[in-house]
Amino acid sequence: MVREEVTAPRRGPGRPRRTDEETAKVRRRIVEAAERTFAREGYHGVTATRVIEEAGLTRTNFYRYFRNADEPLQVVFEQCTGDLQELIEGGVTPVPHGPERIVAGIDAYLTWSRRYRHLLPAMIADLHDPASPVSALRQQALEAVIAIMARDYADSEWPLPSRTTLDIFVNALEYTCHRLYVDTDGTDEDVARARRMMLRIATAVLASDERWGRMTESGT
Question: How many CB atoms lie within 10 A of CB 95?
C-alpha cells in the first residue's frame, strides 16, 4: 500500500509564527485524529485525507507537521507501548519475589488494556500484518515486558523461568487482555474473571514442577 506523502508547504511571507503551545495543540489534534481513525478503520484505513477530515484541519496544516499518515500514527503506537512498559516497570520493580512480581505484572497489563480498550480490536487485527507498524512495535513491547518481569526474579518454588517460558506466558497475558475487551463489555466482573484466568495460567506455566505437582495432587 502506498502511503500519501508530500513536501510540507513553505510558510507564506508575513504569516505569524505559531507559538510552541499552538504548535503542540495542532500536533496533538492530528495525533488524536489518527488514533480515532485507526480505532475505526485499522491501519490500512488511515490515510492523510481521512486524518485531515477527522481533525477538521486543512491539508496545509497537516503537512506542516507530518509528511504522511504514518507519522502521527507512530506517535500513537509509541505512546501505547511506552505506557505498557511504564506500567509494568512501576508495578513489578518494587516487588521482590517471583509470584508477587507475576501478580503485579498481570494487574499492570489489565490497567493498560482498560486504558487502550478502544484500540484493541484494531490492534488485534494488525498483529500479524507485516505491513502494519503494530506488528513490529508489539514485538518490541513484549520483549521489554519479558525483560522487566525476569529481572531480579527470586523465589525457591518459582525459579527464574526460561526465556521461552516467559515468552509463552506474556503472549498468553496479552491475548487474554485483548480478548477481554473484544469478547466482553469489560465490566468489573469480566475483569475479575480474566484476572483469575491469568493467575491460573501463571501457576501452570511458571511454577516449579514440584509446586505444580503438589497442587495437582491436592486438586487446588
Answer: 15
